[in-house]
Design goal:
Blueprint: H1 2-13, E1 24-28, H2 42-51, E2 56-59, E3 71-73, H3 80-90, E4 96-98, E5 104-107, H4 111-118, E6 125-138, E7 141-153, E8 163-166, H5 167-185, E9 190-193, H6 204-209, E10 215-220, H7 236-250, E11 257-261, E12 278-282, H8 288-297, E13 300-303, E14 308-314, E15 319-324, E16 332-340, E17 345-352, E18 356-360, E19 368-377, E20 387-391
Parallel strand pairs: 1-2, 2-6, 6-8, 10-11
Antiparallel strand pairs: 1-12, 3-5, 4-5, 6-7, 7-9, 12-13, 13-20, 14-15, 15-18, 16-17, 16-19, 19-20
Length: 403
C-alpha cells in the first residue's frame, strides 16, 4: 500500500491541476419517508444521512411535499420498531393525538421544521423535492401502462403528475411545468429521470428523444429496477451510451448526465435500504441553487463507493485527468468509454489500472466518460456480485469551435 501511495504522489505531481483543491459535497437525491411509501419518520431518515457524512439530502416522496399538517394512524406504520426508535431518539418532540374515532395518531414533521432541526451551514443541507410519479401510454400498445418517475430537487411548489398521455408527452409536459416554476421562483430545479428499467417502461429511444431532460439515474439502489437489464433490455450504463449516441450523432443534442441514488424506502431491515448510491458535487458553497447549477455544468460524479480526489477536463487540449482517492488495499480499473458512430453505442477507448487517469481524446473521440470499478464488494449490494464504482460525466461532446 505504501508503494501505491508513493506512486500516487509522483504521478499527481506531473498533472496540471490549475484550480485549488475543490470542495466536494456528498448527497442523495432520491429518498422516501412516511410522507409516502417509506417506512420511517422523516427526521429519523435525515438524521441517518447526516450522521454518516452526507452533506445534502433530498426528501423526494411520491407526488407530495413535506408541508402542512399531517397526522398518521399508528396502525398504518408498518414497522412497530419505527415508532419505538423515533420516541427514543426525539423524545418530547414526538406529538400524538386521538382522532374523532379514537384512533391513535402521530404527527409527521414538515420540511421547514426539519430544516431548523438539521441544517448546519457549510456542513449539511436539507433540500426539498418530489418524485413526480406519473403514468404514460405506449403509443404502440395503448393498454400497456408506462411508469414515468421524475425527481425534482430544489422545488417549492408541488407538481401534479400527468396521466393517460403518450409517454414522451408525459415526460415533456412534466419538464415544461418545472421550467415554468423556475421562471416564477427564480430558483433552478434539478430534475432527473428515475430508474428507466423499472417495469422496462422507458426505452433508450425515450431517453434519447426527450432532449429537454439532461439527467437520468445510471444507478438506482432499489433492487427491483433491473439495474443490469435482461436478455431484451440493456443495463443502465449501456442505456446511457446508446441514448447519448442518438443525441450526439443523430439529434445534435447535448448528452445525458448520470446520477447515482438510493431510492431508499426501508430503514428497519428489508432490501430497499439507504447508503447505496450518491452524487459528489463540486460547488462553490453548500447552497441548493449552487448545487443545481454545478450539476447542470457537469461538475459532479456518481458513485456507489469509489471516491475521486479530482476531475479535470481541458476543452482546448481535450485532456481528461482523474485522481482516484486510495482506500485500504483496493485496486481500481478505469475504463474510458467513447461513443462509436458506426455501432451507435459505447466503446472502450482505453483502460487504466492506476490511481491516476490521464487521457487525451483522439480525433474519433466525440464524447467520452470514465467508469471506475473497485475490487471491493459493495457493503450493501442491490444486485448479486455488485462492487463499488464511480461514473464521471461525458466530456468532449461539444462541437469544436472554429479557429
Amino acid at each position: 500500500m505504501k508503494s501505491r501511495l508513493l506512486l500516487l504522489v509522483i504521478f499527481s505531481a506531473t498533472l496540471t491541476w490549475a484550480e485549488p483543491e475543490p470542495t466536494w459535497y456528498k448527497g442523495n437525491t432520491h429518498t422516501h419517508s412516511l410522507w409516502s411509501d417509506g417506512n420511517d419518520f422523516p427526521e429519523m431518515i435525515v438524521d441517518w444521512y447526516r450522521a454518516r457524512g452526507y452533506n445534502f439530502l433530498v426528501l423526494s416522496d411520491h407526488n407530495t411535499l413535506s408541508r402542512g399538517e399531517r397526522w398518521m394512524d399508528i396502525s398504518r406504520i408498518r414497522k412497530k420498531q419505527a415508532l419505538d426508535k423515533y420516541q427514543v431518539r426525539f423524545g418530547d418532540r414526538v406529538a400524538f393525538r386521538d382522532d374523532v374515532d379514537g384512533k391513535k395518531q402521530v404527527r409527521l414533521a414538515t420540511y421547514p421544521e426539519m430544516q431548523e432541526m438539521f441544517d448546519l451551514p457549510g456542513r449539511f443541507l436539507l433540500v426539498e423535492g418530489e418524485e413526480i410519479t406519473a403514468r404514460g401510454i405506449d403509443p404502440d400498445y395503448p393498454l400497456k401502462v408506462k411508469h414515468v418517475h421524475i425527481n425534482a430537487m430544489n422545488l417549492e411548489t408541488l407538481v401534479k403528475p400527468i396521466k393517460g398521455k403518450p409517454i414522451r408527452e408525459v415526460m415533456r409536459s412534466t419538464l415544461q411545468a418545472l421550467r415554468k416554476l423556475e421562471a416564477e421562483t427564480g430558483h433552478p430545479i434539478l430534475d432527473h429521470i428515475n430508474h428507466p428499467n423499472f417495469h422496462y417502461s422507458i426505452s433508450v429511444d425515450d431517453l434519447a428523444q426527450v432532449v429537454e431532460e439532461q439527467f437520468f439515474e445510471v444507478y438506482n439502489g432499489h433492487p427491483s429496477v433491473h439495474q443490469l437489464g435482461d436478455t431484451n433490455h440493456p443495463p443502465m450504463n449501456e442505456m446511457w451510451d446508446l441514448a447519448n449516441a442518438i443525441r450526439i450523432f443523430t439529434l445534435d443534442a447535448a448528452p445525458l448526465f448520470g446520477i447515482a441514488s438510493d431510492d431508499s424506502h426501508y430503514y428497519h431491515g428489508g432490501n430497499v435500504s439507504p447508503g447505496r448510491g450518491w452524487v459528489m458535487v463540486k460547488a462553490d458553497a453548500l447552497d441548493s441553487d449552487k448545487l443545481v447549477k454545478a450539476m447542470r455544468r457537469g461538475d459532479f460524479y456518481a458513485s456507489t463507493g469509489v471516491y475521486l480526489r479530482k476531475i479535470a477536463y481541458d476543452p482546448k487540449t481535450r485532456r481528461l485527468q482523474i485522481l482516484i482517492a486510495p482506500d485500504a488495499d483496493q485496486t481500481f480499473t478505469t475504463r474510458i468509454i467513447g461513443l462509436d458512430r458506426e455501432t451507435m453505442a459505447g466503446k472502450e477507448r482505453a483502460r487504466f489500472d492506476t490511481l491516476v487517469v490521464d487521457y487525451t481524446l483522439g480525433p474519433d473521440d466525440r464524447c467520452i466518460r470514465a467508469e471506475i470499478t473497485s475490487s471491493r464488494p459493495h457493503p450493501n449490494p442491490s444486485f448479486k456480485d455488485q462492487v463499488e464504482q464511480a461514473w464521471t460525466q461525458p466530456v468532449g461532446w461539444e462541437k469544436p469551435q472554429a479557429e
